[in-house]
Amino acid sequence: MLVRLRQVQPTLPPAEKRVAEAVLAAPTAAVGATISELAARAGASQATVVRFCRAVGYTGYAGFRIDLAQATSRRAVELERSGVAQGEINRTDDATDVVSKIAFHEARAIEETARLLDLDALERAVAAVARADRIDVYGVGSSGLTAQDLAQKLSRIGLVCLAPVDSHQQLQSAALHGAGSVAVAVSHTGRTVEPVQALTLARERGAVTIAVTNSPTSPLAEAADVVLTTAARETQFRSGALSSRIAQLAVVDFLFVRVAQRRYESTTAALAVTYDAVQQHRTDPRPR
């Protein structure tokens, strides 16, 4: 439920977004709050709180608060299991605290992504990639690293796959797509201009388009035929792109392994010859 709140929060009107921010900032306190108390904390009206509840899938505040109580209880159990008092990193944390909290967030991001991933969408993406005559993967910043990871994996099993880094190169490559090709774009928010533009253009040219994003209602998702949704929450150290990148890499691995399974014979052969090709660059000739 908290994952869903984080995903829809950017799309909410300003007043309802303040309600979401108040809930996500202190979910345990929100569980114990009356509708008027939550409205006051968010600087909104009670009617806005009701609209917010409906926007995230509930008929009213009572049902929302019941699910929120269950979600916060599960989170408390997860924190206790990980030996973490609270999930946010603060300036007084020592190395043990930082390592524990980062491990908690990243493990949780993978678990929630795997649990909430649409497996039918994954299989549609796998089918498209496995039969594609060419594949582009777009991403910038930390999402660009995920794009390069997927391109490297697919290239190693014999698929024609590129991950252009420059935004102009992305658009040029997208313009050359056609029927039978696939374009994949990666963006945590789904609102980064460059991958949205490239994916939109590739779709106009006839490519099957796939989005990997944390926001299923984002512009990137709208430009995609298939959406693979991550479930990651960033800490205040957002620039590190911690949990989001880990969740993206998990989705990339899900996609890659299923494609490799589908192309099992050619995958096995390609892995063997690519492994042999780099052996002269190893200082230790022993197997990996």
- Principal-axes geometry comes out as globular
Main β sheet profile? 5 strands, parallel
- Low-confidence region ranges: none
* End-to-end gap: 42 Å
Biggest sheet: strand arrangement:
2-1-3-4-5
Q: Averaged pLDDT, please?
A: 88
Strand content: 5-15%
Oligomer: single chain
| Share of residues in helices | 55-70%
The structural class is alpha/beta
Q: Spell out the helices and strands N to C.
A: HHHHHHHHEHEHEHEHEHH
Instruction: Provide the gyration radius in Å.
Output: 21 Å
Strand segment count: 5
Number of helices: 14
Question: Would you mind describing this structure in some detail?
Answer:
This protein is α/β, with parallel strands linked by helices and about 290 residues long. About 60% of the residues lie in helices and about 10% in strands. The chain is built from 14 helices and five strands. It has helices spanning about 1-10, 15-25, 25-30, 35-40, 45-55, 60-80, 95-115, 120-130, 140-155, 165-175, 195-205, 220, 240-260, 265-275, and strands at about 135-140, 160, 180-185, 210-215, 225-230. A five-stranded parallel beta sheet has the order 2-1-3-4-5, sandwiched between helices. Strand 3, helix 11 and strand 4 (about 210-215) form a beta-alpha-beta unit. Helix 2 crosses helix 5 (about 45-55). The longest helix is centred in the first third of the chain and has 22 residues, at about 60-80. The two termini are about 40 Å apart. The mean pLDDT is about 90.
